[in-house]
Design brief:
This protein is an alpha/beta fold. Helices cover 38% and strands 19% of the residues. The strands form three sheets. Strands 10-11-9-8-7-6-5-2-12 form a nine-stranded mixed β-sheet. Strands 1-14-13 form a three-stranded mixed β-sheet, with no helix packed on it. A two-stranded parallel sheet has the order 3-4. A hairpin with a 4-residue loop joins strand 10 (282-283) and strand 11. Helix 3 (86-106) packs parallel to helix 4 (124-137), helix 3 crosses helix 11 (329-338) and helix 8 (222-235) packs parallel to helix 10 (263-277). The longest helix has 21 residues, at 86-106. It starts with a helix and ends in a 5-residue tail after the last helix. Residues 1-20 and 297-301 have low confidence and may be disordered.
């Protein structure tokens, strides 16, 4: 399904790559086309299961690993995460590696691995050990993508990931100190300039750096959007991803009223992003922009039709069925501990 949406969005954009201004009809058309394909294709059987089905011969799969720990919890984030406790996190990584062995025992092989969270780099030594374990179990893995927040870039331990991660995606959200303060990220992760300097220093560690930005915050003016895009462009990363602020039923009610801009403003901001990045980057999907048009990109659009997820709160899409791993850390640990596969 993701490849269909990607193709649809790219076809709408292609004729206007050279234009200065993206027309209103194209923005609205893209929304309608993407919604059409979502409504048409996202008809899934969802199963909560303790054991995955065996792989189908000849199919290619991606491995997704979820790390659900953060030192601090951002108010607008809807991803599955818990406050970090080192003992719980180290126990979790052990279980995660065992679940990878279980996937191997079922017969799975993978060509690509994506690690998301939470904060994947919350324990760099455990993450490095887990990636090494995955590459040993699945020697066919050619690329590893991972996420991080700006704070961890300054850690000396972060360098352990050099040579293990091919694509590091950094959750900047905004370089504007006012937006960072409003979203409680200024004290947690530092100023926009500090984030800029950390990313610049980390560029040498990974073949691909992706800068994640979010638009759709209340008070995020055209000048702030442009400044964010200019700062990101100065870093000259291989990729820039610009997500809209996603307000769901999981988001705190207070956040919905305090942080989100009206829909009309978000449309205007998205048009500004397209206008600014066109010519500098190729559009890989509705949100993702890259220096080339044939590289892997964000976690919402993947190059594999099917993937297997490991870890608490992970999803697997296999044989037109969405499998959901337990969101309870306790139940996850218990299931892995009593699973007869692996060791």
């Amino acid at each position: 399904m993701s490849s269909i949406i990607q193709s649809a969005s790219q076809e709408l954009i292609k004729p206007y790559q050279a234009n200065i201004t993206v027309p209103n009809w194209m923005i609205s058309s893209m929304e309608r086309v993407m919604q059409y394909y979502v409504d048409k294709n996202l008809r899934l059987d969802t199963i909560s299961t303790d054991r995955m089905p065996k792989p189908v011969e000849g199919k290619k799969y991606m491995l997704y690993a979820h790390i659900p720990f953060c030192h601090t919890l951002c108010s607008f984030c809807t991803f599955h995460r818990f406050l970090f406790r080192e003992d719980k996190a180290r126990e979790y990584f052990i279980a995660l590696r065992k679940e990878m062995q279980m996937a191997k025992d079922l017969g799975y092989e993978f060509e690509s691995m994506y690690i998301g969270g939470g904060t994947t780099t919350v324990l760099e030594d455990e993450l490095a050990r887990t990636i090494e374990h995955a590459k040993t179990l699945f020697p066919g893995i050619k690329e590893v993508s991972c996420e991080s927040d700006p704070q961890h870039l300054a850690s000396p331990e972060f360098k352990q990931l050099k040579g293990l991660v091919d694509r590091m995606s950094i959750g900047v959200q905004s370089f504007d100190d006012g937006i960072l303060k409003m979203t409680d990220r200024l004290d947690k992760f530092g100023s926009g300039q500090e984030t800029f300097d950390r990313i610049m220093a980390a560029k040498e560690l990974f073949p691909i750096i992706n800068v994640d930005l979010i638009f759709g915050f209340k008070g995020q003016t055209d000048e702030i959007i442009q400044s964010d895009l200019d700062m990101a462009s100065k870093l000259d990363p291989r990729q820039i991803t610009t997500y809209p602020l996603m307000i769901t039923h999981q988001t705190r009610k207070s956040v919905k009223g305090q942080l989100a801009a009206p829909h009309g403003e978000m449309v205007s901001q998205y048009r500004q992003i397209l206008n600014s990045l066109t010519g500098q980057y190729n559009q890989l999907s509705a949100w993702a922009f890259g220096k080339t048009d044939n590289e892997g990109f964000d976690e919402y659009v993947i190059d594999y039709d099917e993937y297997l997820g490991v870890g608490s709160g992970s999803f697997s899409f296999l044989n037109d069925t969405l499998y959901v791993n337990t969101f309870s850390l306790k139940k996850y640990q218990q299931r892995i501990a009593h699973e007869p596969h692996g060791g």
